[in-house]
Design brief:
Number of domains of chain A: 1
CATH topology of the largest domain in chain B: Dipeptide-binding Protein, domain 3
Oligomer: heterodimer
CATH superfamily of chain A: MetI-like
CATH class of chain A: Mainly Alpha
Radius of gyration of chain B: 26 Å
CATH topology of chain A: MetI-like fold
Largest interface: A-B, 17 and 23 residues
Largest sheet of chain A: none
Order of helices and strands of chain A: HHHHHHHHHHHH
Shape of chain B: globular
Largest sheet of chain B: 11 strands, mixed
Number of helices of chain A: 12
Number of domains of chain B: 3
Amino acid sequence: MTSPTTMQNSQVQNTQKKYSPLKEFWKSFKKQKAALVASIFIVLLIVVAFIGPYIAPYDPFEPNYDALLEGPSASHLAGTDEYGRDIFSRLIVGAKISLMVSFSAVFLGLILGTILGLISGYFGGWIDKIIMRSCDVLFSFPDLLLAIAIVALLGPGINNVIIAVMIFSVPSFARLVRGATLNAKENVYVEAAQSMGASHVRVLWKHIFPETISELIIFVTMRIGTAILAASGLSFLGLGASPEMPEWGVMLSSGRDYLGTSSHVVIMPGIAIFLTVLAFNLIGDGLRDVLDPKIKNN
Amino acid sequence: MNYVKKLVFVILCTLLLAACSEKDNSNASNTGDKSTTESGTASSKNELVIAVNENFISMDPHNTGDTNSSSVQETMLEGLLGFDADGQIIKVLADDYSISEDALVYTFKLKEGVTFHDGEQFNAEAVKANIERIMNDESLRLYSRGFSLISNVEILGDYEIKVTLKEPYGPMITRFGVAKMISPKMIKENSADIPKKPVGTGPYKFVEWVQGDHLTIENFDGYWDGGERVAKITYKPVPENGSRVAMLKAGDAQVIYPVPAQNIDELSNSKGVEVNKVPSTIAHYVSLNTYKKPLDDIKVRQAFNYAVDKDAYLKVVNAGLGLPLDSIIPSKTVYYKQQKMYEHNIEKAKALLAEAGYPDGFDIEIWGNTNSDTMKGMQFIQQQLGQIGVKVEIKSMEEGTLSDEIYGAQTPEDAKLQMWYVSWSAYASDITNATKPLFHSVSFPPNGANTAYYHNTEADQLMDEANSISDVDRQAELYEKLQEIVYQDTPWIFLGVDEVVYGVRSNVSGVQVNPTGGLDVKNAKVE
């Protein structure tokens, strides 16, 4: 991970030319065209998620039995579903659910994983062993299978999906942070802080945690894509959002009977999921190119 | 060097695997080719491929619960009685029969000159062996369906037999149609094989059954009723809807059953294919727990019935198929009497709800399984009741859990069920099973399927009397009254009756589906 020398260099730069990390970041990120487009898409999506209910052309819950399964047209941009509900409006309103689920799951996983990773890497010894072996246990299950098992235990529902996706995110974060912590622990300034009598919490929070941030940011963006997929997958299986909700996975699931006859019912939410996941992954890639010191050094 | 060795090994393995799979493929396609070429030329006259939606479970006619298995059995095995295309009772191996007035004694005169596929004679001895097999074996499904009530089987002559019951049992006559006759030799010597390769008296005899792949039967030359039939029929379980449809279009199957609702239009417009619809005895309804608030109030239940648009239901949930359920039993069921339907009237529904003390509606749960049609139906109910201010929460549960939740309740007080989206099907000739388990107060869960906890003493009496007599006219009278009373009391939201849909190639005739959903190809012909 970050080597002591580069850190010192950047710190030197920092003091010399009024170096603004944000500006620097933006300069390199701008060059990542794909990631840039993806970010714009995500920002738009977040805006839509917030104002969705106000801009949706139709009530996403209102059935219209005279307009069942109509293809995309001027009045229904993405067509109507099996109850005659406007799919476009449902996608817009559903964006909020999909984003909310994935963001909260990933951030909860991030917090828990980071704490565990810091503790594990910093203290080492038996604490490290316990945490890492528990992570290994969780790793040994395929992500979605673990999530299904958790939801099966907790019962279906969107909150339990968040918990499930969170739980399978925790070990990845923990392992990542532990690695970064092990590296950062060796830094001279950490030793210095320790010798000056700084508390463990202070050393961890002020000196070690910042070292892990760049990697965490990359990983979070990547992980959100996975989380959206997992949440949609769970909803598709009937374990997540209740069937009337305009959650994208639910829409995909209830539309699958019409795949052969009115494929737009499935294709539209499919595209929404696909684009969103792709965008998050592209941003993640772009961020890695900009932030990851290993790549920078090359 | 080591690397090269490994590489060679991997390549060899791959080749070997490829060779194996190729062999399998060529085998498969060979047999496939044979059948298609045969069916392409002289064939089609002699062969029929039928694609159905589920695997066959058992060929034991005395222990079968699924429609597909009994459809196949229907071609190989026959009972004393049977069912016509409308599901009504006809005589098959019985030449004649009579029922005593107290509905306790059934006397059958048997057909002469009937032989089983293994050469055994069909006579009173054979019938006795079959009935005794069922009445002495609790593990058979039919045991608990009437045959456990048989006290005595008496042979009156070579071709005459008398069966006496301990107590009257209305559906017994239907059971004699369901209970197919197995060769007595097989029952005696080889009963373990009955579920795998049954021997009966039917127009077709068993050839082979490869689980999950196909089941083949062929024409039995010594059939007592003669007639011309196709030489060979192959049943293939094809659970995937799309594949089944594709098989019919391509001519790889001459009959598919069922046709998925969403493909009806597509198939109707295809050349060389015919799609047929038949009203079934499958009724869809929502049972309303009449024991507990708020559904204990008849006004609330009636309000629900007025709030739900049955035509829209059929259109949205059933892909436009089916008929509204306008009585407590489907129209194909014997003694059916049409009732005046609760028309779709939101205002009336709202008014009734207000009268019952719920002007602003209330929250309620609906339960159902995870089947996609059920989910669709529950959402539809949710939307419809939303119009009168009733907020419905959908709880879909895996079938096993659902059944535990519903039938786990030992008393009506324990029941957590409020509404259940479900369907019921009984033989068209068996009105007892279409009413008693659903509306009689002895059928509260866990003893029966009266999940509405419907209790009306008058209705109970009507059902009790109808079940204890054999006078057809009186039964009709009683059941008419029963339908009126129960329909008025609205223990259900009455939704619709399914139509079953099957597809055939245009050169195939004589295929029928009876109201219970059984596919009958005994008289199928290919031109």
